[in-house]
Amino acid sequence: xxRGIWITRQVRARVQWTQGVRLRRLEYVLxxxxxxxxxxxxxxxxxxxxxxxxxxxxxxxxxxxQLARQASAEHTAAALETPELWDxxxxxxxxxxxxxxxxxxxxxxxxxxMAAYSARQTEQGLDDLTDAAAAFLGTTTSTGVLA
Length: 147
Description:
Order of helices and strands: HHHHHHH
Strand content: under 5%
Largest sheet: none
Number of helices: 7
């Protein structure tokens, strides 16, 4: 507990908007950061990362709510990362499609759309691809010469 109070005292000195909070109250709301063993620099950096341009009327409550939101978001993200009833043997594998013809038609349509967009940009004089840039990219310029 003495370690928590000592770190909280340092955090309160470094984060201006927390300076009006009683030390014990601030130590209590910072416990989610203190218990894992974070130091004063890391905790102060976390509070500064919230980029407050205003001073909360009740800083301790604000910290408590923000830390609860972060914990909830982390819990939700962890739950979404592990799908239930996932069977690796039944999964078709990465980047496989049951209908290869559909994938090919989508890619062909994308290529045609990009070509039309590039032609329209060239017509409007917005094509800024120089011969040097084309050579670097290994493509052709508007003159059709492979650079």
